[in-house]
Amino acid sequence: MKNIAVIFAICWSSLLHGYTLSWDIPQGKRLEVVKTADVEYYQDSRFIKRYQERNIVDLTCYEKTTNGGRFKGAFSTFKRQEGLSVFSLEERFYSDFHIARNGEFTVPKQYVMPNVRHMPSFPDGDVPVGSKWEARGEDIILRPFINMQVGVDYFFAGVTKEDTTNIGIINYTYVIDKDVAAKRLGPAYPAKLYGIDYTAQRWDLDRNIPIDANEQYRLLIVQGDNRRGYNSEEYRFNIYSTYRIYDPVNDTTKMDDRAAVEKSLPKNSGVTVDTNERGLVLRMGELLFDFDSDKLRPDSKNALDAIMKVISERYPDREIIVEGYTDNVGSSSYNKTLSESRAKTVAQALKKELGTDKMSFRGYGKDSPIADNATAEGRQKNRRVDVIIKLN
Questions:
Q1: Cβ distance 134 to 154 under 8 Å?
Q2: What pLDDT was estimated at residue 213?
Q3: Strands 359-363 and 271-276
Q4: Environment class of 264 (CB within 10 Å of its CB; exposed 0-12, middle 13-18, buried 19+)
Q5: Dihedral angle sign, alpha carbons of residues 308, 314, 317, 322
Q6: Over the range 58-71, which residues count as b (16 or more CB within 10 Å of their CB) and which as e?
Q7: Are the beta carbons of 195 and 215 closer than 8 angstroms?
Q8: Coil, helix or strand at residue 241
Q9: Chain segment 157-209, per-residue pLDDT in tens
Q10: How far is CA 71 from CA 147, 304, 340, in A?
Q11: For the segment 308-355, what is each residue's pLDDT rounded down to a tens digit?
Q12: How many CB atoms lie within 10 A of CB 132?
């Protein structure tokens, strides 16, 4: 009852003066968005499978403008199948676009991301609790590419207070009803798209940044025509999104971090430390595994323990990316499969002990060698697993 009374008092006060709703990501800062979806997939109304998807979006404001800011964005998509404890990295996209203070996106045509645009968008001026408004939105399907223009209905549901922070509750919904066949786009495209989205967004009213969101999204894809008949695919998403602001990390800071981590590692750990454009790289050689195997050797414990200690003590909130690599001996498909299996094994071992869920893996096979594959020593260095602590 006490919490209800506090919310009521805040909401009654805000009815009198309203709030300014806007986006305001500081220049140089990085906004990390982690969107995790529990997905159910149906064919012709018949349940097929359940899995998890994740998008991690990194938006760095590199220039403030008179009405917003310009952002460089990295958009990574992940999937976690049933039975796995970690996500696998599927794709990564990059973009460069503008977000206005009212939430309007301006995205050059060469970029497909972000695939959800102008949400949430806000009206000008002070907005009292209880206000409703409408704005445009875009929901983009990537394969095949379909840009769905939608009308979004908003409701400023209330304001709560956590410590000294005023938090706005903004609910919005939109409906998809698109006749794709009428546009004669080709056989790869569905005939019709139907969907609905409900989102409850929490917004930091003092700093003008998002906090988190709960979303229910349904999409029905209808294939076929009157002559051949129709069939359907349905996706049911329950999505939870978190948002966090990070300070920029320059090369000097990364080198300082590298030196500190190197100093903290035991001499017999078998781990070397490097840096790249994403952050710190903790590198483990092939001694983790026997030949042609993705099973961890018993003596790999020192390396894994050393890495877990670094992550848990220094970087518990950072995204962790595990990447597997091989030399150039053998077929590309074999090396790709082996490197992915080894990366998955290491990621699952780290996840089991650390508990962090912001971890993924991917295998790259013989790509991105760090040494000359023409020599035995070079090939040995290229057979490795890199654990990347993302700082940028």
A1: yes
A2: 98
A3: unpaired
A4: middle
A5: negative
A6: bbbbeeeeeebbbb
A7: no
A8: strand
A9: 999 999 999 999 999 999 999 988 666 666 778 989 999 999 999 999 999 99
A10: 21, 36, 32
A11: 999 999 999 999 999 999 999 989 999 999 999 999 999 999 998 898
A12: 11
Q: Running DSSP on this structure, what letter comes out for residue 301? A: H
Helix (H, G, I), strand (E, B) or coil at 354: helix
Q: Is 98 exposed, middle or buried (0-12, 13-18, 19+ CB in 10 A)?
A: middle
Homologous superfamily assigned to 251-390: OmpA-like domain (3.30.1330.60)
In sequence order, the 6+-apart residues with CB closer than 8 A to the CB of 187 are none
Q: Which residues contact 304 (CB under 8 A, 6 or more apart)?
A: 296, 346, 349, 350, 353
Fold of 2-246: Lipovitellin-phosvitin complex; beta-sheet shell regions (2.30.230)
SS (H, E, C) 133-151: EEEEEEEEECCCCEEEEEE
Q: Which residue in 160, 243, 168, 157 sits closest to 205, CA to CA? A: 168
Residue 12, pLDDT > 70, answer no
Tokens of 387: 């654990």
Tokens of 102: 């009212």
SS3 185: coil
Handedness of CA 247, 252, 258, 260 (dihedral sign): negative
Residue 317 to residue 315: CA distance in whole angstroms: 6
Residues 152 and 139: their CA atoms lie apart, in Å, by 11
Of the candidates 305, 315, 297, the one whose C-alpha atom is nearest the C-alpha of residue 388 is 315
Question: Do 2-246 and 251-390 have matching folds?
Answer: no
Give Rg (Cα) of the chain.
24
Q: Where are the domains of the chain?
A: 2-246, 251-390
